[in-house]
Design a protein that fits this description.
Blueprint (H helix, E strand, L loop, with lengths): L1 H23 L5 E2 L7 E4 L5 E8 L5 E11 L7 E8 L7 E3 L19 E2 L4 E3 L3 E9 L6 E13 L2 E8 L5 E5 L6 H22 L7 H19 L8 H11 L8 E9 L2 E9 L6 E7 L3 E2 L2 E2 L4 E2 L2
Parallel strand pairs: 2-12
Antiparallel strand pairs: 1-3, 3-6, 3-9, 4-8, 4-10, 5-7, 5-9, 10-11, 10-12, 13-14, 14-15, 15-18, 16-17
Helix pairs in contact: 2-3, 3-4
Length: 306
C-alpha cells in the first residue's frame, strides 16, 4: 500500500513538474524582419518613441521586467524614458512624444490595438508585436545610435531574455539645442552621422578586433568619406579620411585607426590604414581602393591586400 502511495506521489510530482516546465519555458521569438531604424534630430527635453517589432509563432503570456538598449559601436547611448507594448507589429518606425499616441492615419485597417505599459503587468503576445521605447538625447551636438534591444521577462518563476535587432538600419538621434536647429543640424552634421551608423551596422562583422572587423573599420571610414564628397563630385582628401577615422575609431581606443596614408601600388592609388589589434598592441595594415571619378558617380570602395 505504501509503495503504491509513493509511486502515485512520484507520478503526480513528475506531471506537475512537466506542466510547470512547459508553462515557464521561454517563448519562441523571431526578430528583425519588421524592425528597421529611424533617425531624427531632437533637443534633450524631447522624447521620441521608437518601435521594436518581433514575432511569436506560438503566442503566450509574459511579464516584461526590464529592457536594455544595445548601443551601436562608437555612438552614445540615449536615455530611456519609458517602455510600452502593443500586441501587433506597427509599421511606424517612430512617433514623437511620450507616451505613445497613434492617430487614425497611423493605425492599420485591422483596428486599433491599445498600447499599454510594458512593466509590472502581464502582456499577452500576438503573432506580431511591438515594444515601444521612449528615448531622449542627453546632450546637444552628440549622436546616439541603437542597434537592438534586450528584453528580460518572466514566465512563472523563471526569467528569460530575447533580443530584437535593427539589422543594417539602427535608430539614430542627434542632439540639438533648439527645435529650430533640427533641420540645420540634419543637413550640416547629423546626416553624416546617420550614414556612419548605417555603414557600421552593415560592415563591422565578427568579433571585435577580428580580421573581418578590422577590415570593416577601413571600409567604413573610406566609404563614409566618399559618400560625403559625392555631391561635390570629388575624391575625399586625406584630411577628411583622418577626421572620420578619428571620429569613429580614435587612435587611443584598443581598435583605433592609428594612421591613414595615401599610396600608389603598381600605378594604382590606394588608401592604407594602420589599425590597432586589441590588447596585443600590434598594428594591422589594411588597404582600400581609392575610387575614381566616373561620369555617373564613383567606383565603390574595396578592401585590397597590401
Amino acid at each position: 500500500m505504501r509503495v503504491a502511495v509513493v509511486v502515485m506521489l512520484v507520478v503526480v510530482l513528475s506531471v506537475t513538474a512537466l506542466v510547470l516546465v512547459r508553462s515557464w519555458s521561454p517563448v519562441v521569438v523571431t526578430t528583425g524582419a519588421d524592425s528597421t531604424g529611424s533617425a531624427l534630430a531632437a533637443t534633450p527635453s524631447q522624447v521620441t518613441a521608437f518601435s521594436f517589432n518581433f514575432s511569436s509563432p506560438a503566442p503566450k503570456s509574459i511579464r516584461i521586467t526590464s529592457v536594455r538598449l544595445i548601443p551601436l559601436t562608437d555612438f552614445g547611448v540615449p536615455r530611456i524614458v519609458g517602455v510600452e507594448f502593443a500586441a501587433r507589429a506597427d509599421q511606424i518606425g517612430m512617433v514623437e512624444g511620450w507616451p505613445v499616441r497613434l492617430d487614425s492615419s497611423q493605425v492599420r485597417r485591422d483596428g486599433r490595438v491599445a498600447v499599454v505599459p510594458a512593466y509590472d503587468t502581464t502582456v499577452n503576445l500576438a503573432r506580431s508585436n511591438t515594444i515601444w521605447v521612449g528615448l531622449g538625447a542627453p546632450l546637444t551636438h552628440h549622436a546616439y545610435a541603437v542597434e537592438g534591444l534586450v528584453v528580460t521577462y518572466k514566465r512563472g518563476a523563471l526569467t528569460h531574455t530575447f533580443t530584437i535587432g535593427k539589422g543594417a538600419t539602427p535608430d539614430v538621434i542627434c542632439g540639438v539645442s533648439h527645435p529650430k536647429m533640427q533641420a540645420r543640424a540634419i543637413a550640416k552634421w547629423c546626416n553624416p552621422e546617420i550614414d556612419a551608423a548605417n555603414l557600421i551596422a552593415t560592415d563591422l562583422k565578427g568579433p571585435k578586433n577580428s580580421p573581418t572587423w578590422i577590415s570593416g573599420e577601413a571600409t567604413v571610414v573610406a566609404q563614409l568619406a566618399v559618400d560625403q564628397t559625392y555631391a561635390l563630385h570629388r575624391v575625399p582628401t586625406l584630411r577628411e579620411l583622418r577626421y572620420w577615422a578619428s571620429r569613429l575609431f580614435p587612435a587611443r581606443a584598443s581598435d583605433g585607426v592609428r594612421r591613414v596614408t595615401s599610396v600608389v601600388v603598381n600605378q594604382i592609388p590606394e588608401w592604407r590604414f594602420s589599425i590597432a589589434r586589441g590588447s596585443t598592441r600590434g598594428l594591422v595594415t589594411v588597404c582600400t581602393s581609392r575610387p575614381r571619378l566616373l561620369r555617373n558617380g564613383f567606383e565603390g570602395v574595396e578592401v585590397r591586400s597590401c
